[in-house]
Amino acid sequence: MSELNWIKKMDKADWALLGIYFSIAFMITFFAEWSEEDIPLFSVQVLPLLQHMVVSYIINILAVVVIVFWVFNSFFHDGRYFETFFFILVILIIQFGFQVLLLPSFTYQLTGDWLGDILWGMIDNFTDMAPVGLFLMAKQYYSSQTRFVELERNQKDHELKLLKAQVDPHFLFNNLNILDILIQTDPIKASEFTKRLSSLYRYMIRHKNEELVSLEEEWRFSADYIYLLEQRFEGLFLFDIDLENPALPFFFIPPASIQTLLENVVKHNTALPNAPIQVSIYMEKDLFCIANTVKLKHDPKDSMGTGLDGLKKRVKLLTDRNLLVEPGPDRFIVKIPLLRKAA
How many helices (H) and strands (E) does the chain have? Predict the structure, then answer.
């Protein structure tokens, strides 16, 4: 369920921190309540206290998780501070409501002044959750800064690969050969080929230092690249494109990602006149997808020094999501997770 993708942002350390904090809080609160009520430790009277505390702490853990990993990631990080404040209040009210409904022993705190009871219940719950919530947010901030530093470090490597792609002798040689043939046989098509080739190089030079570009702009560049492939291979690679999506300008993608996947198709497959490679390009919600029929070469050449491994690393660093690769005997699919511009 895509609606619950925010839960995947939690790692083992987050769960461990929650477990340690609430275990310590549980023991302290239990022994404080036990000593205050003067209940014999090994008696049936202890059971209701334990049940009360277990349910209460489960509710608290759920509230912390939703606030830190959904509210802050969905609203606060986008500068939507009013929505952040509003949803925290709503969660604290719902949390108090569950405590009243599920914990009969909790009602000893109620005075009949519902507004006052709710207010003090919210304050009490907030103070219980605030320390671990702050720890988790601090950990998230530290992790994001660490990813940023790692991204900058890897950006240099990516720039070198793009620079290599710009002057790659095989890529340039193949396209210049096609251009030479077109100049002699079809000058009008040769002119169009030259424009597309120069547009492609201009794009790579202009965006070599950028981490993300709009999907709309990336697709315009990729359309030029597909045109060059079509002229070079003359029907050996057939492209089925379905990108009628009005949200295209609002999505962002690492630059030259689509080109990398198209290169991968050409590099690893043998296309024949009677058995062309079918390439489908489409979107699934916030995923950009390229699927191709499979006819693997025995010894594919790495033509540009870039490939799926480099793209996987860039996508993970930039989107905090994984590149989805779905290999099959007849069809190979790769899906790039996209970032969407905040409203």
Answer: 10, 8
What stretches of 168-186 show up as alpha helix (H) in DSSP?
Answer: 169-185
105 and 175 in a single domain? The answer is no
Q: Residue 17 is part of which domain span? A: 2-145
| Residue 336 to residue 218: CA distance in whole angstroms | 13
Q: What is the rounded CA–CA span in Å between residue 242 and residue 259? A: 17
Which of the pair, 122 or 275, is modelled with greater confidence?
275
In a domain, 159, yes or no: no
Q: What is the DSSP letter of 269?
A: B
pTM check: above 0.70:
no
Cα 211 to Cα 155: distance, rounded to the nearest angstrom: 8
- The SS3 call for residue 302 is coil
Cβ atoms of residues 106 and 49 within 8 Å: no
Q: Dihedrals φ, ψ of 269, to 5°?
A: -125, 145
Q: For residue 193, give the amino acid letter.
A: F
Same domain assignment for residues 321 and 232: yes
What is the tally of structural domains in the chain? 2
Give the CA distances from residue 306 to residues 29, 150, 310, in Å, rounded to whole numbers and listed in that order: 57, 19, 6
- Looking at residue 110, what is its pLDDT? 65
Beta-carbon neighbour count of residue 175 at 10 Å? 19
CA distance 196 to 227: 8
Taking a C-beta distance cutoff of 8 angstroms, is the pair 308, 323 a contact?
yes
Do 277 and 217 meet the contact criterion of CB atoms below 8 Å apart?
no
The 10s digit of each residue's pLDDT in 257-288 is: 898 898 889 888 888 989 999 999 999 988 99
- Residue (of 337, 232, 222, 197) closest to 281 by Cα position: 222
**Contact yes or no for 29/53 (Cβ under 8 A):** yes
pLDDT of residue 133: 78
Q: Two tokens at 260?
A: 């990398």
Quick one: 184 and 69 in the same domain?
no
Dihedral sign, Cα of residue 82, residue 85, residue 91, residue 96: negative
